[in-house]
Automatic annotation (TrEMBL):
It is found in: Bacterial flagellum basal body; Cell inner membrane. It is a peripheral membrane protein. One of its GO terms (cellular component) is plasma membrane. This is Flagellar motor switch protein FliG. Residues 120-192 form the Flagellar motor switch protein FliG middle domain. GO terms for molecular function: cytoskeletal motor activity. The gene is fliG. Residues 223-329 form the Flagellar motor switch protein FliG C-terminal domain. Its main location: other. Residues 9-110 form the Flagellar motor switch protein FliG N-terminal domain. One of its GO terms (biological process) is chemotaxis. NCBIfam families: fliG (TIGR00207). Keywords: Bacterial flagellum, Cell inner membrane, Cell membrane, Cell projection, Chemotaxis, Cilium, Flagellar rotation, Flagellum, Membrane. InterPro entries: Flg_Motor_Flig (IPR000090), Flg_Motor_Flig_C (IPR023087), FliG_a-hlx (IPR011002), FliG_M (IPR032779), FliG_N (IPR028263).
Length: 337
C-alpha cells in the first residue's frame, strides 16, 4: 500500500485495517470480537500487509468513518431499519439479505457460531455420524468456502444428498435449530415464539459447490441431477462459472486481469470461445495481448483438467474482488458477490 493512497482507492478490508490501527489495540480487539471469522481473516490479512501508513491516511479513514456516522440520525430511523441500511452499505444488497435473514429472524445458533471458528476437519468429525438433515443445516450456516471443505471430508456417497437437502432449505423451524444445538451440546437461549429463520438453500448449495475442486463439483452436481434433474438445473443456474466473467464491465475486467498471472491466463483461455478471448484481449495493452496470443499458439494442446484448475483459480480471485466491492458481476438480474 502506498502512502499516497486515498481512502476511496483502498479496499474495504484495507480501510478497516487502517481504522483499527487508528483506534489502538484495545479498541481494535473489541471491534474484531464482533466480526465473523471470514471478516477477521480478510482484515487480518490486510493489517499484516500494511506498510508505510502515514498519519494522514489514518486521519482520512477516521474522518471518513466520522462523516458517515454523523450523517446518520439514529433518532429518525428504527433499529432494524438502521441495521438493514448499514448492512446493505457495507456488504451489498445480496450479501446483506443473506446476513439479515440470519441476524434478524432468529439467526444461527451459538453452536453454529462456534463451528465457524473450527478447522473443517474438526467440524467434519463432529457431524459425520449425525442425521443428514442435521449435517445439511450445519453446512448451510457455515461460510460457503468452509462448508465446501467440510463437504469434501464427509463420506462420498452422501455428498449429493446433502447438497440436495441444502438446496431445498427454505424456512428452518426453531425446533430444528434447538435440535442442532442439542447435537452440538450447547445451550440455546430461545423461546417458542421465535420466528423461523430464512435460508436461501439454492444459493447456499450453489456457493458450496463453487468452492469444491472442479472434479468433485462436477461429480456431486451430476449425482444431484440424476436424482432430481430440475433441482440440479436450478443449482447450476446459480453457480458462478467462468462464462460469468463476460458480465464484467471493461473496468472490472481490467481490474481482474491485473490480479492474474500471465501463465494462469494463458492456460485458462485455452478452454474458452473466441468471444471471451477477445474480451480479455480488449482489456489488455495491445503488446500484452499480442504476446499472450503468440504464447497460446506456441503452447499447443493443454489438459482439460489444467484449464479447469486455472479457471477455478481466476474465479476465486474474481469472487474475492467482488467481496471487496472492487468488481461487480451480475447474473440472472442480480449481483453475484
Amino acid at each position: 500500500m502506498t502512502e499516497a493512497a486515498a481512502p476511496a482507492q483502498l479496499t474495504g478490508p484495507q480501510r478497516a485495517a487502517i481504522f483499527l490501527l487508528g483506534v489502538g489495540e484495545e479498541g481494535a480487539a473489541a471491534i474484531m470480537r464482533h466480526m465473523v471469522p471470514k471478516e477477521v481473516q480478510q482484515v487480518g490479512e490486510a493489517m499484516a500487509s500494511l506498510s508505510d501508513v502515514s498519519n494522514q491516511q489514518i486521519a482520512s479513514v477516521l474522518q471518513e468513518f466520522s462523516d458517515k456516522v454523523s450523517a446518520t440520525s439514529p433518532i429518525s430511523i428504527g433499529a432494524s431499519d438502521f441495521t438493514r441500511r448499514v448492512m446493505v452499505e457495507a456488504l451489498g444488497e445480496n450479501r446483506a439479505r443473506s446476513v439479515l435473514g440470519k441476524v434478524m429472524q432468529g439467526g444461527a445458533s451459538r453452536g453454529i457460531d462456534a463451528l465457524k471458528w473450527m478447522d473443517p476437519r474438526s467440524v467434519a468429525r463432529m457431524i459425520k455420524n449425525e442425521h443428514p438433515q442435521i449435517v445439511a443445516l450445519v453446512l448451510a450456516y457455515l461460510q460457503e468456502d468452509q462448508a465446501a471443505k467440510v463437504l469434501e471430508l464427509l463420506p462420498v456417497e452422501g455428498r449429493s444428498d446433502l447438497v440436495m437437502r441444502i438446496a431445498r432449505l427454505d424456512m428452518v423451524d426453531p425446533a430444528a435449530l434447538e435440535e442442532l444445538d442439542r447435537v452440538l451440546e450447547i445451550q440455546l437461549a430461545t423461546n417458542d415464539d421465535s420466528p423461523p429463520a430464512s435460508v436461501n438453500g439454492l444459493s447456499l448449495a450453489a456457493g458450496i459447490l463453487n468452492n469444491l475442486e472442479t472434479d468433485l463439483e462436477s461429480e456431486v452436481l451430476e449425482k444431484v441431477k440424476s436424482t432430481d434433474f430440475d433441482l440440479g438445473e436450478k443449482i447450476e443456474n446459480l453457480m458462478f462459472v467462468f462464462d460469468n466473467l463476460m458480465q464484467l464491465d471493461d473496468r472490472g475486467m481490467q481490474r481482474l486481469i491485473r490480479e492474474i498471472s500471465g501463465d494462469s491466463l494463458l492456460v485458462a483461455l485455452k478452454g474458452v470461445d473466441e468471444e471471451m478471448k477477445a474480451r480479455f484481449f480488449k482489456n489488455m495493452s495491445s503488446r500484452a495481448a499480442e504476446m499472450l496470443q503468440d504464447d497460446m499458439e506456441a503452447k499447443g494442446p493443454v489438459k482439460l483438467s489444467d484449464v479447469e484448475a486455472e479457471q477455478k483459480q481466476i474465479l476465486t480471485i474474481a469472487k474475492k474482488l467482488a467481496d471487496d466491492g472492487e468488481i461487480f458481476i451480475g447474473k440472472g438480474g442480480g449481483d453475484f458477490v
